[in-house]
Amino acid sequence: MDMNACLETTSSVPLLLFGLCALTLAVVIRRNECLTIKQTWLPMVGRRSIKRTPAINILQALILIVPVGLWAFLYVTCTNG
User: Fold this and answer.
1) What CA–CA distance (Å, rounded) separates 16 from 18?
2) Considering the entire predicted model, what is its pTM?
């Protein structure tokens, strides 16, 4: 893989994964709390407290750990190879 394609993958794939996880979390929060779309963004940015469920906790952890881990792996792979 050439360096330009490698760097493009390193930047876009984790970002897309982060967005997908955040959208999934928004759907879970919206369904659990029976909120409107506008009200859903308040808990997403920390401006409103919600009842924490295991699904919400797991999704919030995945939002941070998976994209950062993937980005680190891709970065190391690109710089070494």
Assistant:
1) 5
2) 0.77
